[in-house]
Amino acid sequence: MNPLREMSFCLIQDRYNNNNMKMIKNSLIFIFTSVLVFIIIEIYLTQTEIMQPLTGEVDKHLGFIYSPSQDFVMFNEGFCISSINSFGFIGKEYPQKKAPNTYRITLLGDSYVQGLQVFERYHFSTIFESELKKSNINIEVLNFGVAGHNLSDMYCYYQNKVVKFQPDLTLFFICENDLKEKTITEKRNELYPYAEIQNDSLIINYDFTKNVKYKIYSNTKFLFNLSFGRLVNKMYINIQKKQAFSILFDKFYFSKTKQQISQKKEIDITNTTELIFEELKKQEIIIVYRDTINQEINDFITTKIGIQKIDLNDTLNILKQNNEKPNYWKITKQNGHWNHKGHKAVGEFLSNKITNIIDEMDF
Predict the structure, then answer these.
(1) What does the DSSP assignment read for 277-291?
(2) Which candidate, 25, 46, 85, 259, has a CA 20 to 30 Å from the CA of 194?
(3) Helix, strand or coil for residue 335?
(4) What's the CA gap between 30 and 192, in Å, rounded?
(5) Separation between Cα atoms, residue 357 and residue 347, nearest integer Å
(6) What residues contact residue 261 under an 8 Å CB cut-off, 6+ apart?
(7) Residue 91 domain-assigned?
(8) Mean pLDDT to the nearest integer, 48-55
(9) Is 337 left (phi over 0), alpha (psi -120 to 50) or beta?
(10) Domain carrying residue 97
(11) Which of 295, 283, 288 is nearest to 349 (CA)?
(12) How far is CA 264 from CA 180, 267, 315, 316, in A?
């Protein structure tokens, strides 16, 4: 080989190797810096409690649950600083075994019942309990609300956990969406058990531990319990809801309002749903409508099945008529879960209804 060509080739090869080493070095610096920044942000968010995560785990009988004995900070439509008790649900902790001469009420429902938008002292369950105690009866109200729960989820949670707390009365908070076949079917791919019919009997299926999501969760669950991970997930949700610009620009952001077109909702009562209600009828339960329920469903629950109901619209509509919107949050300028006025109205309304029931029982 020509000496000159050989020298040129060596120079090119050296330059190539140097470029590779430089690229590797820069990549390592980038990775190290990214990890360091991530750790700093995580420490900052956790120590300042700006984003204190609500950590969870998966129980093979209950599905996804919140880890017991933890404090958390929650930003959403409102703002909440609260804690999960040692039994894994929100609110004041009572012994699992009920004390003598105690009337215990348990609440089941979705995120409206869970109420992570207000402090515990403003939650309707606290107001509910305080008002009931004025009747000189030892009352305990336990909040088993879980975000996203539909009727099937509530039934499974009731059978697997709530009954162990010996409730005298359980309130199931439902809306029409909780009864939709699509809502219930889609949840079967999540990290929860579900009710189904086998051999003409209602059973609880625990096969969720075999699906892909459970395997993914098992390998990556530590990421979901980090403050930074929760923050990124919150940002992603806001982008999906197209709320990012309104949050960034606040009062300088002007959105185009779309006229809502009301459509008639048609919901078929499935055999599984009917059997769930039949089973619940055997227990001391009351169905609470947290939102509008059409007449067909109401007739099915109250007349065909024969379960007592309470309609929260009777009190929430009064607020709306007085231009006191129970779902509007002035600070974040968005509609969502019940605000403080909504919780107060619901707590006082339930107290009046349940006081009459307890009086009739001569407890």
Answers:
(1) HHHHHTSSEEEEESS
(2) 85
(3) strand
(4) 39
(5) 15
(6) none
(7) yes
(8) 63
(9) beta
(10) 56-361
(11) 288
(12) 14, 10, 23, 21
Q: Is 207 exposed, middle or buried (0-12, 13-18, 19+ CB in 10 A)?
A: exposed
Q: Between these two residues, 318 and 242, which has the higher pLDDT value?
A: 318
CA angle 25, 30, 34 (to 5 degrees): 150
> Number of structural domains, the chain?
1
Q: Which two tokens stand for residue 117?
A: 């938008």
Query: Is residue 91 a contact partner of residue 113, using CB atoms and an 8 Å limit?
Result: no
Say which residue, 230 or 92, is predicted with more confidence. 92
Share of the chain above pLDDT 70, in %: 78
Distance CA 158, CA 301 (A): 18
At 243, the amino acid letter reads Q
Q: Return mean pLDDT, the chain.
A: 84
Q: Mean per-residue pLDDT for 190-215? A: 90
> Which residues make Cβ contacts (< 8 Å) with residue 276, sequence separation at least 6?
151, 152, 155, 195, 202
- pTM: predicted TM-score of the whole model, two decimal places: 0.80
Give yes or no for a contact between 136 and 102, defined as CB atoms under 8 angstroms apart. Answer: no
Helix (H, G, I), strand (E, B) or coil at 164: helix
Q: Is 347 exposed, middle or buried (0-12, 13-18, 19+ CB in 10 A)?
A: buried
Is residue 7 a part of any domain in this protein? no
Residue with tokens 């009064």: 318
Q: State whether residue 311 is helix, strand or coil.
A: strand
**Does 260 map to a domain?**
yes
Helix or strand run (H / E) with residue 237: helix 227-240
Asked if residue 31 belongs to a domain, the reply is no
Token digits for 57? 């785990």
Beta-carbon count within 10 A of 334 CB: 15
H or E stretch at 30: helix 3-48
Residue for token pair 């209950």: 62
CA dist., res. 105 & res. 99, Å (int) = 13
The CATH number of whichever domain residue 195 belongs to comes to: 3.40.50.1110
Cα separation, 247 vs 241, in Å, equals 11
* Residue 336, token pair as written in the block: 């969502």
